[in-house]
Automatic annotation (TrEMBL):
PANTHER family: GLUTATHIONE S-TRANSFERASE KAPPA, GLUTATHIONE S-TRANSFERASE KAPPA 1. Residues 56-241 form the DSBA-like thioredoxin domain. It comes from Parvibaculum sedimenti. This is DSBA-like thioredoxin domain-containing protein. InterPro entries: DSBA-like_thioredoxin_dom, GST_Kappa/NadH, Thioredoxin-like_sf. It comes from the Bacteria. GO terms for molecular function: oxidoreductase activity. It holds the Pfam family DSBA.
Length: 250
């Protein structure tokens, strides 16, 4: 952990924020415009020949995780760029799985997500916590949406609703509005809310996440390789993808 004048920086992936802040108050000894000492690492979206090996990305996420929200648009972008199948592995929020999240950690996560969202150009900040009914209802609809080919759309819009648009997923008005914009009609939502089959799927996804050696969201891996945790690890996932593609060259 790093701490400077009221702001915490958790891990080496946040040194770019600390460095920028120090520079903004005139404490940078490097010439103006010089490259950062600890720049943020991100995906590069390298051009690659088509027709390579099949890529399958397992992506664990939660409707209550702000990090999941700011990772989702970028995950879609990465998967689509490399023609990978994006396997959505939804899980219940940590606190609904019996894992404690202290208040001080929750506050840090929200503040950290805000600065990471700004860096990535993703809207964030008007929040209605979907924990409880909101998360469960969203997962029920997502389970149905995936069967109808609208899973990615609903997952993205649902997370945006909770963390950027201030929409309450526990309310009928909020949930039905998000579903409609994702291409789901009222009948599909009603059927989803009356169907509990999403619960064993969420539990199966949780067990698979633990088997992969991790526990939180977002987590992802490609072709059953070691998993990566965190919205700041897309560069690592991309390196795995490029390694697979490079190894498949004749």
């Amino acid at each position: 952990m790093f701490y400077f004048e009221g702001e915490w920086y958790w891990g080496i992936d946040r040194l770019c924020h600390l460095e920028a802040r120090l520079a903004s108050i005139g404490l940078d000894s490097l010439p103006k415009g010089a490259a950062q000492i600890a720049p943020r690492r991100d995906m590069r979206l390298i051009a690659f020949p088509k027709g390579g090996p099949r890529l399958v990305i397992d992506y664990w996420f939660s409707f209550r995780s702000p990090y999941s929200w700011i990772s989702f648009p970028r995950m879609k972008k990465l998967a689509h760029h490399y023609d990978a199948e994006l396997r959505l592995r939804f899980i219940l929020p940590m606190v609904m799985r019996g894992l404690p999240v202290p208040r001080v950690k929750r506050m840090y996560i929200m503040l950290d997500t805000k600065r990471e969202a700004e860096l990535a150009g993703i809207p964030f900040g008007t929040v209605v916590d979907p924990v409880g009914a909101g998360a469960e209802r969203a997962l029920a609809v997502l389970h149905r949406a995936m069967k109808l080919g609208r899973g990615e759309d609903f997952a993205e819009l649902g997370q945006r609703a909770a963390f950027a648009d201030g929409i309450d997923l526990a309310s009928d008005a909020g949930l039905y509005d998000v579903a409609r914009r994702a291409g789901l009609d009222e009948a599909a939502v009603k059927a989803a809310l009356g169907d509990e089959s999403w619960r064993p799927v969420a539990e199966e996804n949780r067990k698979a996440l633990f088997a992969a050696g991790l526990w939180g969201a977002p987590t992802f891996r490609v072709n059953d390789m070691p998993a990566h945790w965190g919205q700041d690890r897309f560069w690592a996932l991309e390196e795995d993808i490029l390694g697979i593609l490079e190894g498949a060259k004749p």
